[in-house]
Design a protein that fits this description.
Helices cover about 15% and strands about 35% of the residues. It has about 475 residues and is of the alpha+beta class. The strands form five sheets. Strands 1, 2, 3, 4, 5, 6, 7, 17, 18, 22, 23, 24 and 25 form a 13-stranded mixed sheet that branches. A five-stranded mixed sheet has the order 9-12-13-16-15.
Length: about 475
């Protein structure tokens, strides 16, 4: 790492090809780009980005740029020598400003990946009968996003995926859209298998809307108590997986030792020694827990108690079920079920405060059978009660543990990764002890990479699940 710079990130290539002129020599505007922003999130179906351009040669008018061009973008960060290469499509141009004293014009080009752009042009109405959610998603993806092929592990890209005894829960595919398509190279599609068959109709949705529609109806009762399935895109590719899947994958692929790039530290005094490269790439420059406890929100949001009123349209009967958060066996970052000990509140307070009387209520109209239907006339059990109650409780606790963090450099960080954070005590005389509540493993929820004058700042939203999941401090710093 001879050119090490913990925060430096450059646009190596930004080759623009106008629409309809494929095969012609592209225009490289890398030297005109002053800054870029790339946003990725597990709540975001596509990767979004923008570049700020200072145009002194009149490309905006002479090419001209119309918001329809392809852009081959290559970025390099000099901390871990991370390189990202994507084929993107410019879809919007704004912020056009003509300088009064120079013959220059500035503007912003907004882009998404070419894969997501092409899929976003399509809409469809289609019915799926007696197919699992993962099978439906796979069929939609192959038809509208492009062909995929089973991934072949190599020594350079080996990865352990979640599984259960006797049955694989994961599928990893390579994107084979086009041999010349840079967007398809080194990118994958991760798919978590599901068992419950669905009978659904896609109501004139785009492919991403359709997959999100399916994810909201996807239920697992074994390894996925929250049924929190998500569809999102990152540098690595596309994911249709649950939060539990992401956490388990992170646990399976964490390397031991202090050199692990997914270990971060935060303490009042940051190491600035240029020789301490390991500390520089692992140091957080900001860490904030914006909302720790809000009992009013917990009461109104159904954090601990949910009551489901189910009206059976077939039998004309009403059934009421109360769900308790502490009986759901949600798993934390260590893969172990939650317990009252790991909760932000005491057990006695939870029992006394959150009761069936003040539980959040839902009304569900039931038009399906409790058992798998073999006649095809009646839909099978959709588990709507469990989905509504579990996701409500799970998401409320999940959002209460979200923290904001930022660091210099680290273009390699993506949503869906699991990182290990060490938060030091604020005692100036002793920084050897970790904060037992805030330290621990976090799932990366959102990442925004942004440069200014070539310096990259990576802002992250992180989810922890429980506050007492602290691990062993592996930091070598003991100032």
């Amino acid at each position: 790492m001879a050119d090490f710079n913990s925060a430096r990130c450059d646009v190596i290539k930004a080759e623009i090809t106008p629409f309809g002129r494929e095969g012609s020599k592209p225009f490289d505007i890398a030297d005109m780009i002053g800054s870029f922003t790339i946003s990725q999130s597990i709540n975001q179906v596509s990767l979004l980005g923008s570049v700020d351009v200072l145009d002194g040669v009149g490309m905006l008018e002479t090419i001209p740029l119309r918001g329809e061009e392809k852009m081959l973008l290559k970025l390099k960060c000099y901390d871990l020598d991370t390189e990202i290469e994507l084929e993107t499509r410019i879809y919007k141009i704004d912020g056009v400003e003509i300088a009064k004293t120079t013959k220059q014009v500035s503007y912003t080009l907004h882009f998404i990946t070419e894969t997501s752009f092409q899929a976003g042009l399509r809409r469809f109405i289609s019915a799926f009968k007696k197919k699992s959610a993962s099978t439906i998603v796979k069929e939609i993806f192959q038809k509208y996003y492009g062909q995929i092929s089973p991934h072949k592990q190599t020594a350079e890209n080996s990865e352990k995926l979640p599984e259960s005894p006797g049955k694989t829960l994961s599928e990893k595919y390579d994107l084979d859209l086009d041999k010349s398509d840079i967007d398809s190279k080194k990118r994958n599609f991760y798919l978590e298998r599901t068992d419950l068959n669905l009978h659904i109709t896609i109501p004139n949705y785009s492919p991403s809307e359709a997959i999100s529609f399916v994810s909201r109806r996807t239920f697992r009762d074994d390894n996925n108590k929250s049924s929190s399935f998500r569809f999102f895109e990152t540098y690595s590719g596309f994911y249709f997986v649950s939060d539990e899947w992401l956490v388990e994958r992170g646990a399976k692929n964490v390397l031991p030792g202090s050199q692990n790039k997914n270990i971060f530290v935060y303490y009042p005094f940051t190491v600035n020694d240029p020789i301490a490269t390991d500390e520089q790439v692992r140091s957080l420059i900001a860490f904030e827990n914006p909302r720790r406890v809000d009992v009013g929100s917990e009461l109104g949001g159904g954090a601990y108690k949910n009551m489901i009123v189910e009206y059976d349209l077939l039998r004309h009967s009403i059934n009421t079920t109360t769900y308790d958060y502490n009986n759901q066996n949600f798993k934390g970052m260590k893969g172990k079920p939650f317990s009252p000990v790991t909760d932000v509140h005491s057990s006695d307070f939870i029992k006394e405060t959150f009761t069936p009387e003040n539980a959040k209520r839902f009304l569900i109209l039931k038009d399906f059978s409790d058992k798998q239907s073999g006649t095809g006339l009646i839909r099978s059990n959709l588990n709507l009660k469990e989905i509504a109650a579990r996701r409500t409780m799970y998401n409320h606790h999940l959002n209460s543990t979200i923290v904001s963090a930022s660091t210099r450099g680290r273009l390699d960080i993506e949503p869906g990764q699991v990182i290990d954070v060490r938060i030091k005590t604020t005692d100036v005389g002793d920084q050897k002890n970790s904060n037992s509540n805030l330290s621990g493993k976090y799932l990366v929820h959102t990442v925004i990479h942004k440069t200014s004058d070539g310096i990259l700042t990576t802002a992250m939203s992180l989810m922890k699940y429980d506050w007492t999941d602290a691990g062993v401090d592996t930091s070598s710093n003991s100032i």
